[in-house]
Specification:
Blueprint: H1 23-35, H2 43-59, H3 64-85, E1 92-96, H4 106-120, E2 124-127, H5 133-141, E3 146-151, E4 169-172, H6 175-184, E5 188-191, H7 196-210, E6 219-222, H8 229-242, E7 256-258, H9 261-271, E8 275-281, E9 284-289, H10 295-304, E10 309-317, E11 333-338, H11 343-358
Parallel strand pairs: 1-2, 1-5, 2-3, 3-4, 5-6, 6-7
Antiparallel strand pairs: 8-9, 9-11, 10-11
Helix pairs in contact: 1-2, 4-5, 4-9
Length: about 350
């Protein structure tokens, strides 16, 4: 639903550095014309540039180990893109948590219950494919509703029995390619108690949304019933980061802490009650809506969220001219010149729009 800037095409109206014009580019263009004469633009343009970049690795005398790394990463990503492409229109929730959580642990049972409920709500679940919380989520959602994004480790992490040998299981050599997929494909993130890796993923997801490097989405920190893991984490964040001014008050809106699986599901469903997705068109943030906003709601936006504007006003629109081929072209739009700084406030605005549409 969201379009993470890290993996989407360049925004219209934003300059992008292109390879210097050289004979290599001309040769790449001719090679591609011969190999794929029907290659569509602008995809063909980027493939030509990939060819140029690859050849320039030789010009730069790039060490073999670095060339091998780039080659392996590109192959991993291409395979993953192909796997996810079949499910492009299905909303997905990425889940994180400890691989060490045993089956009798309340957190395991909570993860299984959450996965069952979110799958019943029409979402698919993405996990790291291993044991513990990952296994719980895949057992709860079922094989047909899950993806496995595994990592190859020195002490091999074997895929759990609920995703093993499934075509939706992918195994990555590098953490950075794996992490990209976790966020790129997610419409929401839910984190259960875990160790260093889980905390790393929590902070990374929050950082990406806080800085606009990932699109707005729910981030839910889900504990076992009565658990204190994420409540203690929140107290630390508020007591140290917020109190010292290292984050803003509005950044608290970027996540939700709960110990209720149903509440976590409703947080995700509610986020998409009116909000559908968003993208930038030049300097404009275009928010696609599942239903149009009425005039009183638009006026409230002008009054209460004007601080989000770099200039101009909020206005309603049909799909912009630059979106003529967009698959969401029939949806109404809310358009603003967003300041691209206050993403916590943007989340608050989206919550307001969703509440207004629920009335």
């Amino acid at each position: 639903m969201n379009e993470p800037p890290a993996s989407s095409a360049p925004r219209a109206g934003v300059s992008r550095r292109r390879p210097r014009r050289s004979p290599i580019l001309d040769h790449a263009a001719e090679f591609l014309r011969q190999l794929r004469p029907d290659a569509p633009e602008p995809a063909a343009q980027f493939v030509r540039e990939l060819i140029v970049t690859a050849v320039r690795l030789l010009d730069d005398r790039t060490p073999v180990a670095d060339v091998r790394l780039l080659n392996a990463a590109l192959r991993e990503l291409r395979h993953a893109f192909r796997v996810f492409a079949r499910y492009r229109d299905v909303p997905k929730v990425t889940t994180f948590g400890s691989a060490r959580t045993v089956e009798s642990d309340p957190a395991f049972l909570q993860a299984e219950e959450f996965a069952r409920q979110i799958a019943a709500a029409g979402f698919m679940v993405i996990t790291g494919a291993g044991g513990g919380i990952m296994r719980a989520c895949q057992r709860g959602a079922g094989r047909e509703r899950t993806f496995g994004v595994n990592i190859r480790l020195p002490s091999e992490q074997r895929p759990n029995e609920f995703i093993a040998d499934d075509p939706k299981l992918m195994t990555f050599r590098y953490f950075f390619t794996r992490k990209l997929l976790f966020v790129k494909e997610a419409d929401a993130v839910v984190l259960f108690p875990g160790g260093f890796g889980t905390l790393d993923e929590a902070y990374e997801c929050l950082t990406l949304v806080q800085t606009g490097k990932a699109g707005p989405m729910p981030i839910v920190l889900l504990d076992a019933p009565g658990g204190e893991y994420w409540r203690a984490w929140r107290e630390r964040v508020e007591g140290q980061l917020l109190r010292r001014g290292l984050i803003s008050e509005e950044d608290r809106s970027l996540f939700r802490v709960t110990d209720d699986a149903g509440e976590a599901v409703e947080e995700i469903r509610g986020f998409y009650r009116v909000y559908h997705s968003s993208r930038y068109v030049g300097e404009k943030l275009v928010i696609r809506l599942r239903q149009p906003l009425d005039d009183p709601t638009l006026q409230r936006l002008e009054n209460d969220f004007r601080d989000l504007l770099a200039s101009g006003r909020f206005y309603l629109s049909a799909a912009l001219a630059e979106e003529d081929a967009d698959e969401t072209a029939a949806l109404p739009r809310l358009v603003l010149h967003f300041n691209r700084a206050n993403f916590g406030r943007l989340r608050q605005m989206i919550d307001f729009v969703n509440r207004a549409g629920a009335r």
